[in-house]
Amino acid sequence: MDRRLIFCVLPGCFQPYQDLPVLDFSEMSFDQPGLETSSAKVRAFDLAEHTCPDGEPARMYAVYAEGAAPGAPIALMLHSGAFDYILSSEEGESPLDGRHYRTESRLERSWALAKVWETLGMLPTPVDAGEDNLGSLAVSMVNAGWVQLYPANCWGDLWHHDLAVNPNDSATEGFERDGLGLAITAARVVTEPGFAGTVGIDIPVEIDPAQFFLVGLGDGGRGVAELLARPELAGTAVAGVFLDSSPDLASAYVDDPASWYPELVGMELLYGESFVDDPDATSVHRMISQGSLTAPVGLVWSPLDHAIPPAATSPLADALIAAGAPYLVVENQGGGHVFSNSDTVLADAMVGWLATGEFEASAE
C-alpha cells in the first residue's frame, strides 16, 4: 500500500498545513514508489542556531539509505517557494499576524517542514498546487547511493539573507530572516570536517565532499547562486549544479513590473531598492558569462512555465547551449513548474548526468 494513502486518513489531512498535527519524528522510513532499497531513511535535525520568525528552531533533513557504500555523493537540495513578505499589519499586532503576500504564511516552521515533505513526495495535500512533486529526484538519488540534505526555509527570503553577514532590516520588518544562513550551514556540513558534529548533525553514511552537488528547484535556484557567490564555497570543488525552473535573472521582473508587481515589491524588500540598478548581480548567468563558475551546470526549464517570467530563465538556457559541454539544457514544452521531481525518467537522467557527465537522450 502506498503510504501516502495512509497519511490521507489521518485527522486533519485536508486542513491547512499549519493546522495539521505535528509529527515530530527524528527518523522515519523513506518509502516511495520506485525505490530499489527498503533501508531508505529521512532523518530530521533541529538547529537552535537558526530560528524561524515564529520562534521555532529551523530544521534540516537528511535522506539516505542505511548501508550505502562509503564515499557517497551528497546533494544539497534547495526547495522552491521560499518567498513571502508582510503587506500590512495593524498597529500593535505582530507583523506575522498581518496580511501576507501569500494566502497562507510562509514565515513559519510548519510551512517549511511541509514544503520539504512535499518535495519528497510525502505530503498528500500540495503546498504549491502549481508543482507536481512526487519525490522523483530523492528516489533517483537514493537508488544511486547518494545522500541528500534538505534545509527547510521558513524565512521567505529567496535564500538571500544570512544573519551573520547579510541580515535583513529586522527593525522594519519586525523579524529576522536567515534562509541563506541555513543553506550555508548545510554546505559547511559537507565541506568542513568536524563541523556537522558542532551543530548536532549525524549522518550515518560516509560522504565524499569531492562529490558535492547543488540542486535548486524553482526559486531554490536563486539560493544556489547565492551559495556559489559566498566565500564559504570559494575554493570548494562543487562537482556540479542542477537547476530546475530557476528564475535566475531578476531583471525579468524589473523589466515587466505590470505583470510581476507584487513579486517585484517583495524583491526590493529583500534585496534593497538599489537592486534594480543591477538585478542580475547574483545569478548563475552572470557567473557563466564571467567564467567564475566552471562546474558542470544542468538546467531543466520551459518557456511556458506559468510561475515565472520566461526571460528569467531563457538567457541562462541560451548561454549554456552556446557554451556547450560541460553544460546541459533540457527544454520542456509543458506549462508546469519544476519538472524533474515528478518525472522518473528525467530525474534518473539528470542524476546520471551529474554523476557521469552522460545524459540519456531518451529523457529529453
Describe this structure in words.
- This protein is of the alpha/beta class and 364 residues long.
- The protein has a single domain, classed as Alpha/Beta hydrolase fold, catalytic domain (Rossmann fold).
- Helices cover 28% and strands 19% of the residues.
- The strands form two sheets. It has a nine-stranded mixed beta sheet with strand order 1-2-3-7-4-8-9-10-11, with helices on both faces.
- Helix 10 runs parallel beside helix 11.
- The protein is globular.
- The N terminus is likely disordered.
Topology (SSEs and partners):
Blueprint lengths: L2 H5 L19 E3 L10 E12 L5 E9 L6 E7 L7 E3 L10 E2 L8 H11 L16 H8 L3 E5 L18 H4 L5 H13 L3 H4 L8 E11 L2 H9 L9 E7 L6 H4 L2 H15 L12 H7 L6 E5 L12 H10 L4 E4 L12 H13 L8
Parallel strand pairs: 4-7, 4-8, 8-9, 9-10, 10-11
Antiparallel strand pairs: 1-2, 2-3, 3-7, 5-6
Helix pairs in contact: 3-12, 10-11
Give the domain tally: 1
The CATH architecture is 3-Layer(aba) Sandwich
Q: What string, H for helix and E for strand, traces the elements in order?
A: HEEEEEEHHEHHHEHEHHHEHEH
Classify the fold: give the CATH topology.
Rossmann fold
Average residue pLDDT: 92
The amount of helix comes to 25-40%
